[in-house]
Amino acid sequence: MFKVKEAFYTLQGEGARAGRASVFIRFSKCNLWNGKESGRKAAVCQFCDTDITGTDGENGGVYSQAELLNLALRLWPNTQHGSPYVVFTGGEPALQLTESLVDDFQQHRFECAVESNGTLPLPKNLDWVCISPKGKSDVIIKQCHELKLVYPQVDLSPDDINDIQADYYYLSPMADYGVENSGMIIRENMQSATQYCLDHPQWRMSLQTHKLLGIN
Length: 216
Hints:
Blueprint: E1 2-11, E2 21-27, E3 61-63, H1 65-75, E4 85-89, H2 99-107, E5 111-116, E6 128-131, E7 143-151, E8 165-173, H3 183-199, E9 203-205, H4 209-213
Parallel strand pairs: 2-4, 4-5, 5-6, 6-7, 7-8, 8-9
Antiparallel strand pairs: 1-2, 1-3
């Protein structure tokens, strides 16, 4: 059974596939933060902006493999145009995601992507892998399609992950969700990320366009 926080149909907001229509399936729980504000300061990842606890979000629940596939099929529009695309995210999807689930989705024409922190093994049959390292975590996934780094991080710099091979490298400017009126902090991070990309042109800027658009 799969514990799902929420599932919804939207546009991919970040990275190489930004703007693509997608079914997002957000699994509950993460191995780098327990999802509780009381545990944030002690967490490996202290800047998560996502509610990852429970199953009470949109279309959230505990699903069998067949039920989860049927949910995604219902969410995808009834059209012959465009390839069905699903993004498994979290939380940390590697805690629950299986090759069998991915295979079932692919048998129904879904292209399967994952957004992971890279600290746990992933199914081998995924079509697209985005790795986003966090803090001092031990990343074991050393090859991916897309490497996304929230920047800047106190305990992690791009130089610390130069052993990870990717087709695309993205910096995502960090926002401080714990501080009111944090516009100046966000601007500083934007400027810092911009300068890093200019100095290291293999890196590209990635903005959370879904938040700019006001969608999930």
